[in-house]
């Protein structure tokens, strides 16, 4: 089992999020405002790819070939499809797709620790006192997928929010409750024996048993046990888990969406027969099948040691095939305008190379990729300084990313939720929309 530098394991997570179900109320003024708001031309789904550990911005999308050797690193720049725009030459396929996505090079936040930074990026809120990154789930605020689930709801019988290949500890629903927790695949789509646990009953279960709910409940009772043991849920939440499992098991729409084996060998090869590639392919299938939000938690980008060797031999080849094919595939299927793709780590890496040929955590400057869903392609927003240490233009941060994502999805970023005790809480923490992308 892999670990990051803080010693936390990557054994991740209970299947379905938090302790209880709580709705949010809305008054007449909010209803009238919502009715008067402009609606997007298309419903927009979200694929949020989280590069767990922190991608090195200075070795990928923000190279500094003129910086001193102890900063610039070992990789060379290459021209992209956009004239005058360079990126790492180990991403040749991504470079050909840059007309389909854009880069925010002036991104930053104030924390360089995995747990708090993870929560910040996955929820848009920096955690307050008492945050414990070793707890799963550890959300003080609902994750992006849970907000999308709450605001937009499911389409058909597929879940509104799916996490794969596992759920990040900050990927839960917090006070929004079990109804808006993710459906967690909890299996690697690149494995030869891949199947979605708890979705399709074993072949030995006859079809007439599927019509008998009392018998089927014995099959899905692990939801009950898991919920009680890991989340201390009450009976209402357990019933929610059970009902979700039953609906999925009997849904042809869900079975089709999760059936990655239906893809051609050629397509699977183009994405790459690795975790990131097959997770991106699965994400495309899921949004095509009606899922509102898919989060992909991909490890391990925590390159303190041997940064250049790990990037060159493992991480960047996988990234190149997965991300380039995802954008091309979405465009070929006419899905790019209706699918927003966001790719980011929790922070970047230190521009100065350390004594182990690695780079350490660096929140003060990194690059975020956004494409599809109404984002203009081929745009670079902002820039960093000569050594990629700080933004050299007005910076953007997680709050602004959330304001932008939700706006593109037709969700009012100024909306509110209510906590279980009835206290109103902002959905976005005063973020501003990155209009350069729109």
Commentary on this structure:
With 438 residues, the protein is α/β, with parallel strands linked by helices. The chain has one domain (28-437): Alkaline Phosphatase, subunit A. The protein is 31% helix and 13% strand. It has 14 helices and 14 strands. The strands form four sheets. An eight-stranded mixed β-sheet has the order 6-5-7-1-8-11-4-12, with helices on both faces. A two-stranded antiparallel sheet has the order 2-3. Helix 8 (222-231) runs antiparallel to helix 9 (235-249) and helix 12 (275-288) runs parallel beside helix 13. The model is unreliable at 9-40, 201-207 and 222-233 (pLDDT under 50).
Name the features.
438 residues; alpha/beta; Alkaline Phosphatase, subunit A; two-stranded antiparallel ribbon; 14 strands; 13% strand; globular
Q: Please provide the ordered H/E string of secondary-structure elements.
A: HEHEEHEHHEEHHHHHHHEHEEEEEHEE
Task: Give the strand line-up of the largest sheet.
Answer: 6-5-7-1-8-11-4-12
Shape: globular
Structural class: alpha/beta
Fraction in beta strands: 5-15%
Under the CATH scheme, which architecture would be assigned? 3-Layer(aba) Sandwich
The strand count comes to 14
Average pLDDT metric: 86
